[in-house]
Every structure is written in structure tokens, then in C-alpha cells.
Amino acid sequence: MIAGIGIDMVEVPRMQKILQRWGDRFTVRVYTPEEIAYCQGKAMPAIHYAARFAAKEAVLKALGLGLGMGLDLREVGVARGDVGNPRLTFSERGLRMVWERAICRTHLSLTHTRESALAMVILETQA
Fold this sequence. Notes:
It is a single chain. By secondary structure, the protein is α+β, with helices and mostly antiparallel strands. The chain has a single domain, classed as CATH 3.90.470.20. It has a three-stranded antiparallel β-sheet with strand order 1-5-4. A two-stranded antiparallel sheet has the order 2-3. Helix 1 packs across helix 4 and helix 3 runs antiparallel to helix 4. The longest helix is centred in the middle third of the chain and has 19 residues. The radius of gyration is 14 Å and the shape is globular.
């Protein structure tokens, strides 16, 4: 059964400006070390940072939370699954929030162009 759906879009040029202005001060507050390594390894890091930021926001929306409502953006991560597909990761506190809501499966889809990045999240509970 679907417990929550979240979607978010981030403009890549806006992310590029944030990265130029704030650099590491921004990335270490928002992204996991694994996400930073992944994005920095790409030819256009801002695209990948934007997609991951959208995923974090989509998770908050799917959980019915807003920024500052108990889950920091850095506590949600995007990793690569076994076949390269994106998958969500959570900090210990994030996992507790997921388990408290009886969520047993998470689904993540990412897409991006040079101008925008979009993420969709679906959270499931047992039927």
C-alpha cells in the first residue's frame, strides 16, 4: 500500500550558483560523503547535486515533513543500486522515522537535463 508520494524539481543553474557561492560549506551540510564523491566525479557536478537535492526534498514530502521538521537533508542519501539504479539511503534517525511509519519499501526515480533535475519518491507499507 502506498504510504506517501513526493516529487520535487530543482533548476540546475540555481544549484550551480549555490555551489559557486557556498561550495563545501553547502555540500557538507546537505549531502553525504558518498554523494559528494559521486557528484564531484561527474563532468557537470551541479546536475547531479540538483537531482540528489530534489530526491531529498521528495522524501520529505512523501513523509509529510517540511524542512526543519525532524529530518535533516543530510540524513537522506542517494546511492546506486546493484544495476546502477538510484536508491535511497537513510541515517539511523532517518531509518527510525521510516520504520515508525511502517514503511517497508522505497522507490526513487531521477531524471535531469542541463536545465532541471526531477526526483519522484514512492513509499510503501505492507498491505
